[in-house]
Amino acid sequence: MAAARLAPAPGPLGPPGSRRGRQVAGRGSAIASRIISRREPINEFAEKLYKIARKWQERWLRSRIFEADPDESKPKFFITAAFPYPNSPLHLGHSRTYTITDAYARFMRMRGYNVLFPMGFHFTGTPILTMAEAIANGDKDLIDLMINVYDVPPEDIDKLKDPLSLARYFSRDAKQAMIESGYSIDWRREFTTIDEEFKKFIVWQFTRLKEKGLLKKGTHPVGWCPVHNMPVGMHDTKGDVEPEIGEFTLILFELEDGLYLPAATLRPETVFGVTNVWVNPAADYVIVAIDGRRYVVSERAAFKLRFQRDNVVVERKLRGEELLGRRVRNPATGRAVPILPADFVDPNTATGVVMSVPAHAPYDYVALEELKREKLDTLKKLGVDPAELEPIPLIRVKGYGEIPARDIVEKMGIKSQLQRKLLDEATRKLYSDEYHSGIVREDILNYIYPDMPEPYRSFAIAPVKAWIAGRSVPEARDAAARWLAALGYGDRMYEIMNRPVYCRCGNEIVVKVLKDQWFIDYGNPEWKKLAYELLNSMRVVPDEVREEFVKTIEWLHERAAARTRGLGTELPWSKGWIIESLSDSTIYMAFYTVIHKIRRYGLKPEQLTTGFWDYVLLGKGDPDKVSEKTGIGRDVLEDLRREFNYWYPLDSRHSGRDLVPNHLTFFIFNHAAIFPREKWPRQIVVNGFVLLEGKKMSKSLRNIIPLRRALRVYGADTVRATLLAAAELLQDANFSDELARSVMDRLRRFESYAQRAREAGGEETVADRWLRSILQRRVEEVTKAFEELRTRAATVTVLYEMSNDVVKYLEIRGGEPGPALREYIEAWTKMLSPIAPHIAEEVWHEILGKESFVSLEKWPSPDPSRRDLQAELMVAYVDRLVEDVKSILRVYKGEPRRLVVAVASPSSWRIARIVAAHVARRSQLRDAIHAAIEAGAPGKEAARLVRRLYELLQSVDEELLSLIEGVDVFDEKYAIEAMRDYISAKTRIREISVYYVEEAAGRLPESKLNQVTPLRPAILIE
After folding, report:
1. Backbone dihedral region of 677: left (phi > 0), alpha (psi from -120 to 50 degrees) or beta?
2. What span, in angstroms and rounded, lies between the C-alpha atoms of 495 and 351?
3. Cα dihedral 618, 623, 629, 630 in deg (nearest 10)
4. Integer CA distances (angstroms), 114 to 575, 593, 742, in order
5. Which pLDDT score, from 0 to 100, does residue 3 have?
6. d(Cα 786, Cα 802) in Å, to the nearest integer?
7. Exposed / middle / buried, residue 580 (Cβ in 10 Å: 0-12, 13-18, 19+)
8. SS3 45
9. Burial code of 787-813, b = ≥16 C-beta within 10 A, e = fewer?
10. CA-to-CA dists, residue 61 to 121, 441, 666, 851, angstroms
11. With left for phi above 0 and alpha for psi between -120 and 50, is residue 340 left, alpha or beta?
12. Which among 147, 309, 452, 1001 could bridge 457 via Cys, Cβ 3.0 to 4.6 Å?
């Protein structure tokens, strides 16, 4: 027999990367175009869902059921999601985080928690300003995007030319989108980051950071917009890309006439193996005077160096080809090496000058081999002997020979510089292997100024012998950079490592070494210790993201805290500087707890002093003195303090994975710095992105679907459930039309089954026992999935598995609903509520006739005493029998008239239980035989029976094994007779006869009867 299994989820829910998934993705572009072009509901049921949603949203708002106030009789649960930037409408990509948050909030509310889920809007920074400026300047592409993609009415475009007007326009739109999505938000606590009350809160936060020495003035490299002359972070850039700043070591290769070629490298320890220097012959280079020295660098490098050095003077321009064939002196070895051409040298990266180490750099090895193989004439014209370009081995690394670059290039079959992807992969692999397990060879000392007379040579090689030769690559790297700098042949340059990164104004970001700027000192070692402590104390979901937080805390350093333009809070001690957007959004969750009461009590911004916040949020200070200084009544202060104390700490923080390297880690740092340990947040939940028909959504592709449009087209519950069903947290969720229609069909079925529950009646059968038992299992599965934030598992079970349960139930009952169906539907409605709350409310009220809101109902609890394993095993057993009969019918010739089945006697069931237990525990066959004999089975009979059962049960799943173990006595004949009509309907065989094997002599062939064991009947079709 085939193993009994739950019915699999239908095609649209295939796993990412599956064959079906790839096929769907392949059709994505055409389907995405059709989705994007839609503006109205796709069918009548979608329109019905939209109307149902609006109905219940109005009732929720009118009844204020999601407004949460302190209630000491309940455990509290404070949950937040990253508030949005209202520089454009919310789209499907935004809604995934909010939908996961809301589903979890609704689940916890039904579990008996007093849940607070508030929302605000992030006006701070340059995104809003830049968008408004572009519209005001008549940016045709942007205006077209607003009208034809974002659904902004043409008559509203003028409203978007002013930054504040634009922010308010889109924040209203975003709020409406959240309401139309059915998010259970307490809107009394809504605020924006330019509200005067919030600005006072931020002033308090930064004052406290400054007092703790965590905010300081200094000189540090920052991402910089060269047009607006201000620091730039993630939310100031196009595509919200965080500029990653790296430091290149510049090794000064001396040319004649006091000129130097500063080769930029991340691997200064390989300088001993340089065979040549690369420049791009087609690029523009310049001679610049910097700090008393004259460098030859790319023209773009000279521009960037102006932001990192005080005096950069360009003397003259030259083409890269003018440098070819000239020789420069390697400062580490004294060797004169040629300058050669390389198209792969990017003049926009660092200095545009690259040193060539072919033994350890795949790009260099391949480029030189190509030159020697195909351009010997070029080398000859440049006066270069190919023999002087032979690789010089410097590092021993396990798994590689003398020339590691050659090994990996040959292994990967790389023949040309044009194979960029393979070369990038080879470079990453080799650099990683050498970094983690490479040792610098001792014989590198032979390369250092071999012709230098003693004792001078001994002095020259002494530092290399002491600090570099024989050392690990990380140790040698740092030592080599320091050694070259001490000799006067080392310099440094900062670069955007993930370049190009563009400011929202459209200009490419550079690195500026900023002086006398205020920085948040995330590099402070004591603060890092606190951040690690907080991280270790909290739950991170999924847990594999924890390592990303660890690495971020590790590398995080000083961060510019303010900008010279944009909306936000001014630094109180540095006029004209606005606190930047990722610095004023770290502990704002605390502000949610009291803002509604600040407004209710009519408190003025000037009353919200640092002393006020110290008392309300930290409990510091004498309330009478605070009252006297602020003019706020003591009773009001104490009420605000109680409100904060009740809700804090934050129980769950939700955001996208892209915010782990910045916002979410800053959230950890700032809570650790400001609040006592008992107020530290308890959980962070991180999710992946949303794809549309397998493609990343982007403005350039114009495949962004505004959330409110998606809600109109598919209905709020369809959008919610599709996003939740598409993927687990860290996977990218693919929103597809096929999946959305599948989800909508399941919602339609749910409603129709609820209608059938009204007709429920009649006598109880095995189907009712089975359905009640399965319900306990479903409740347990969905509860566990929600607790672990496996939203896909929860949604698939609720929408698909529970629907399949009802289908099977009705089949077993011959289509007539029985007494268990209403009970099942009521529990199902509750379990659907966090996922698709509107149709759940509709069914709860209009079909089941309930008076309460299902959103506030108690979550069902599994009742182990109501598990009927006997009924579950009966259904599983009969389903296996049906599958076996169908297999026979597929090759059967003629019209089947009668089904004859011979089954094992119930007395042999105990042997089946023993074997199932051993198979479940993966015990040996001999152990199962021994256990059966000990249980009283005759030796020879036990051995033969156990062998057959052991072989049979190896193929069944854990679920069926568990059922077999859990049922004391099982009568297969009774099971078949009790479900005779179901078997007949599934096989289309009207006459069914069933016998114990002892009764079946003469009715079936003896050869078949001899093979009968528990769970393996003999089958004859006449």
Report:
1. alpha
2. 10
3. 70
4. 43, 14, 34
5. 31
6. 16
7. buried
8. helix
9. eebbbbbbbbbbbbbbbbbbebbbebb
10. 20, 73, 34, 17
11. beta
12. 452
What is the model's pLDDT at position 39?
83
Q: Which two tokens stand for residue 484?
A: 């070259």
Alpha-helix runs per DSSP H in 438-577:
456-467, 473-487, 525-537, 546-555
HEC letters along 327-350:
EEECCCCCCEEEEEECCCCCCCCC
pLDDT given at position 608: 98
What pLDDT sits at residue 563? 82
Could you count the other beta carbons within 10 Å of the beta carbon of residue 2? 13
- The DSSP secondary structure of 676-734, one letter per residue, reads -GGGS--EEEEE--EEETTEE--TTTT---BHHHHHHHH-HHHHHHHHHHH--TTSPEE
Residue for token pair 């300047």: 137
Q: How many residues would you count in the chain? A: 1022
The conformation of residue 580, written as its DSSP 8-state character, comes to P
R_g of the chain computed on alpha carbons: 36
Q: Measured between alpha carbons, how far apart are the two ends of the chain, in Å? A: 20
437 Cβ contact list (under 8 Å, min separation 6): 397, 398
Separation CA 937–CA 939 (nearest Å): 6
Q: How many CB atoms lie within 10 A of CB 76?
A: 17
The span from the CA of 82 to the CA of 104, in Å, is 15
d(CA 245, CA 972): 71
Tell me the one-letter amino acid at 673.
A
- Output the six-digit token pair for 43: 């069918």
Q: Is 249 helix (H, G, I), strand (E, B) or coil?
A: strand
**How far is residue 720 from each of residues 97, 235, 684, measured CA to CA in Å?**
11, 27, 21
Mean pLDDT for each consecutive 10-residue tract of the chain (1022 residues)? Answer: 30 37 44 74 96 97 97 97 94 95 98 98 89 91 92 95 96 97 98 97 97 90 85 78 89 91 96 96 95 93 93 93 95 95 93 96 94 88 92 95 96 92 95 94 92 85 92 94 92 92 88 87 96 98 96 91 87 89 95 98 97 98 97 98 98 95 96 98 96 84 90 97 96 94 97 91 92 96 98 97 96 93 97 98 96 97 92 94 92 86 90 83 81 72 80 86 90 94 93 92 89 91 88
Give the SS3 label for residue 313: strand
The b-or-e profile of 842-867 (16+ CB within 10 A means b, else e) is bbbbebbeeeebbbebebbebeeeeb
C-alpha torsion sign, points 569, 570, 576, 582: negative
Write out pLDDT tens, residues 678-688.
Answer: 999 999 999 99
Question: Quick one: which of 496, 499, 567, 517 has its CA closest to 231?
Answer: 517
- Residue with tokens 């579990």, as numbered in its chain: 111
Cβ–Cβ < 8 Å for 566, 124: yes
Position 310 scores a pLDDT of 86
Tokens of 597: 């009461």
Give me 35's structure tokens. 């989705």
Half-sphere exposure of 85 (CA within 13 A, CB side): 22
Residue 630 identity = T
Query: Would you say 123 and 115 are in contact if contact means Cβ atoms under 8 Å apart?
Result: no
Give the DSSP letter string of 891-933. T--S---EEEEEE--GGGHHHHHHHHHHHHTT--HHHHHHHHH
Which of 330, 196, 193 has its CA nearest to residue 253?
330
Please report which residue ranges of 38-138 form alpha helices under DSSP H. 44-63, 92-110, 127-136
- Angle at which helices 28-37 and 737-757 pack, to 10 degrees? 60
Structure tokens at 956: 């069944």
Q: Which single residue is written with the structure tokens 């510091």?
A: 620
Tokens of 91: 């789209």
Q: What are phi and psi of 1020, to 5 degrees?
A: -130, 130
Task: Give the per-residue pLDDT at 22.
Answer: 36
Distance CA 160, CA 88 (A): 10
pLDDT score recorded for residue 348: 94
